[in-house]
Specification:
88% of the residues lie in helices and 0% in strands. The chain is an all-alpha fold and 170 residues long. The radius of gyration is 19 Å and the shape is elongated. The chain starts with a helix and ends with a helix.
């Protein structure tokens, strides 16, 4: 993602990365369908750990979309959810759209970081220094991006915990 930011900037980089994300999450989703029974047994073996994954497959389209989005923003390992999504009965459309929306903050920061690295590299190559205004803009922008990501991650974890508690009450 950094390389996409360095080479293509925001728009082309975003399109390229999101196309890669689409393929990268779709393949395990459909491979998971082949191993449905085995994944289902694993989820049953670890009910507490799998509760949030099972929660994603419940409810209607919007509930699935919202839960997938929250899972993508949270620190839950992506690869685990990619394979388990089929076994939890998450439909493909909310899975893919929720993945796109949930990964946007991460992709944006990675692209921004790549663009920032490129600007520093160009300044070094041209043997010129960045202006004070550019340095301040880059540092503040980077800190704001990291701060927003941390804030969103904390809020997402709290929301997922609340959803898990609501599920256990039912």
């Amino acid at each position: 993602m950094w390389m996409a930011g360095m080479a293509y900037g925001y728009v082309k980089g975003m399109l390229l990365v999101m196309a890669g994300v689409s393929v990268g999450v779709s393949l395990p989703y459909f491979v998971g369908s082949v191993f449905h029974a085995e994944i289902q047994r694993l989820l049953e073996k670890y009910p507490k750990e799998a509760s949030i994954l099972r929660l994603a497959g419940e409810g209607g389209w919007f509930h699935q979309f919202r839960t997938v989005t929250l899972i993508r923003i949270s620190p839950l390992p992506y690869i685990m959810f990619n394979y388990a999504a089929w076994a939890t009965n998450v439909r493909y459309t909310p899975y893919l759209l929720g993945t796109w929306v949930g990964m946007l903050p991460e992709v944006f920061i990675a692209l921004y970081s790549g663009i920032l690295i490129r600007s520093f590299a160009e300044a070094t190559q041209d043997k010129r220094s960045l202006t004070t205004k550019q340095i301040i803009f880059n540092v503040v922008g980077f800190c704001a991006s990291v701060g927003a990501t941390i804030f969103i991650g904390i809020r997402t974890k709290k929301r997922l915990d609340r959803l898990r508690q609501e599920e256990s009450m039912l």
